[in-house]
Amino acid sequence: MAPTKAPDSSRRSDRSRRAIHDAALALVTEVGYRRTTIEGIAARAGVGKQTIYRWWPSKAAVLMDAFLDLAGRAAEEVGAGPGETAPGIPDTGDLVADLKLVLRATVDELNDPTLEAPTRALTAEGVVDAKLGAEFVHKLLDPQLALYVTRLRAAQEAGDVRADVDPRIALELLIGPLMHRWLLRTLPLTHAYADEIVDYAIGGLAPRT
Amino acid sequence: MAPTKAPDSSRRSDRSRRAIHDAALALVTEVGYRRTTIEGIAARAGVGKQTIYRWWPSKAAVLMDAFLDLAGRAAEEVGAGPGETAPGIPDTGDLVADLKLVLRATVDELNDPTLEAPTRALTAEGVVDAKLGAEFVHKLLDPQLALYVTRLRAAQEAGDVRADVDPRIALELLIGPLMHRWLLRTLPLTHAYADEIVDYAIGGLAPRT
Amino acid sequence: MAPTKAPDSSRRSDRSRRAIHDAALALVTEVGYRRTTIEGIAARAGVGKQTIYRWWPSKAAVLMDAFLDLAGRAAEEVGAGPGETAPGIPDTGDLVADLKLVLRATVDELNDPTLEAPTRALTAEGVVDAKLGAEFVHKLLDPQLALYVTRLRAAQEAGDVRADVDPRIALELLIGPLMHRWLLRTLPLTHAYADEIVDYAIGGLAPRT
Amino acid sequence: MAPTKAPDSSRRSDRSRRAIHDAALALVTEVGYRRTTIEGIAARAGVGKQTIYRWWPSKAAVLMDAFLDLAGRAAEEVGAGPGETAPGIPDTGDLVADLKLVLRATVDELNDPTLEAPTRALTAEGVVDAKLGAEFVHKLLDPQLALYVTRLRAAQEAGDVRADVDPRIALELLIGPLMHRWLLRTLPLTHAYADEIVDYAIGGLAPRT
DNA sequence: TGATAACCGAGACGGTACGTCCTGTCTTGAG
DNA sequence: CTCAAGACAGGACGTACCGTCTCGGTTATCA
Predict the structure, then answer these.
(1) Whole-angstrom Cα distance, residue B37 to residue D51?
(2) How far is the C-alpha of C129 from the C-alpha of D32, rounded, in Å?
(3) Domains with residue ranges and CATH for chain C
(4) Could you check: is the Cβ of residue D46 within 7 Å of any atom of nucleic acid strand F?
(5) What's the whole-model pTM score?
(6) What whole-number distance in Å separates Cα of residue A79 and Cα of residue A85?
(7) Are D39 and D49 in contact (CB under 8 A)?
């Protein structure tokens, strides 16, 4: 039952970890997830294969960590410093405007060519592998969605959203269509589309006049 | 341009084609998409590998065809005969009831353990491989979504939906959240959820009183 | 037990037979025996694979026939007409001169770049496959060697070779060294070498003075 | 020029090397060279195919090494120890008797059922593949033939062989007929035949009385 | 003068082996 | 101990041929 041998994480080489992250992201972007191999990552990172196998259970796990790291560094740049986390959804009092702002930002993120390949790869892997999907949702998606819940609860208190609306469902009404278009590439994902989604959805969430 | 040599499809063995479809679906369901191999499909189908490579460019393409075949056969059973296509969305005059019926059916389909594995596999593959994704959308998804468009246009004419609403977007407001839950497995996918989605979405689509 | 189906050789297409022979010889010369395939011969000859399998049991058998045909045609050119066979060893009364003449001709034949590839291929195949080797010896080698036997018997009657010498062995004393050099490529195969072999061998065959 | 990547031979597994040798020899003896496959050798040796491809360029090369190893081990058993090489041709003063002894031993070796299959396979391969043939001659044949040269030179000094005789050619006069019979299977290869060859050949080599 | 049987070209089929690539484990030597 | 390097057993890849079979389309006897 014991996991054979637990590596001593205090002695872990940070240099290698970073190099592996970078190599993984670069390869996924360059040649695609399928053709990215552990051997390839190791070679590119100038690292022994064992160093990868020692610390990660699978290619997907490497990419997930790399992606988390990337997201963390991106957040640091935007926020004030390393202590801060995601900036949250603004509350200007105008719910529709606030949501449009955030959804437009999400659209931009999804359209960012740097992030696209790894995000798609991880999402796809999660669709098929429940364990990995759960990790993906828990580590990457949930924190994002929690922000929506917070903002929507505030809107409920302000009377902009009906009290009987479940914020989890309301949020999916906003995010679902976006993801649908992005994942299936049915139609282009634009700011205009984000705005329309907000307009339509709010109609179903706002108090009946 | 021409891919080296086009096989003569009139000589194609129907027996082999069917056996390959069956083997592919069975293996994907039993051991998962990842561990399903072309060699495995060939062995299970009692077929030479070359017979697969002759007619399909990839494992995903085999599964796609197998799935299409399965869907076609299922449709034939439900419909009156081979001439008929998908049954369409009923139009009882009660838009909300009609949509709930169809969304509940979609929920049941997504929860069907027989269909789950291949559907997830194909969707995931399409998320990463744009070409395959386009084929998936075009062959499987679009026909489904066209039915919604038809029903929603009828509703617009009946005055149940505002005339300025784009049916493509309205449809995504309904389907998007469902797919989001199913793909990411954030929360269970139930009839109650389908009903709520319809209730919320209709609020944004119906005429302002 | 019955050989499935005996093809009717009277309806055999001579055009195909010739085309197959030519293709086989050309391919063996161009790409070597190993890389010559039945499919390749069929394609080059503009012939269906079955036409080869109908008339020959193996690649080696095709080559053997092709070679026999080639040898036959070459013999026809040299000889007066189609009725004649190999010209035989001359009997000028000078045994040593006659043998040198023939051995030099053999050396030239073995060094002929057109014949080399197929001859080596057939010989090598015969070394490993006893059945084919026997056929090779019977159809190609024995007729040649019989000529030596005839000439040597004449020499015995003329008193140039001891009466107790077995002509089969005498002949191997002459041919063996030649083949050894040619097969193993230990040293170059020249007219001078042929002459020396005859000189040495005759010493062991001629009557003790 | 460099063949892509040279493996580190100091890390080479001796266990695998031996297992591959044994498997190769066993399979060639059991099912013949043609039906011996690299996959078969790997499976029999309990080895990955790559381990064969890493160290040998072809099936023939594997067999060559295996054969060399076998010959080496056999020589060690006969000789005093690992330092010794082949035992050489005895020099009792009686040239004819010495040669008959050695030729009889060669006959026995060629008739040995254990050695026959691999020897034939390698010889045949060498007949067709010049590079491999050269290796075969250089590594296996030349050392043997050098022994004859030594003995024949001694005979020349002792006056048993004429001084103007080229030992290389004399040796081929002895070995050639043997090889001819063995390779082409024209007639059985016996001790009596070996004796006759020596008798005849010596007639051509000994000083004229 | 058709029928009808073969050979023929073509090439799909079930298979086997190829030689390559990658997986995940294990071993070696340097730091 | 970790690490870079890479050999190892294993297994799937996609390709090339094998030898068999089936399909029209010519021939070339026989009824």
Answers:
(1) 24
(2) 9
(3) 10-69 (1.10.10.60), 88-209 (1.10.357.10)
(4) yes
(5) 0.89
(6) 7
(7) yes
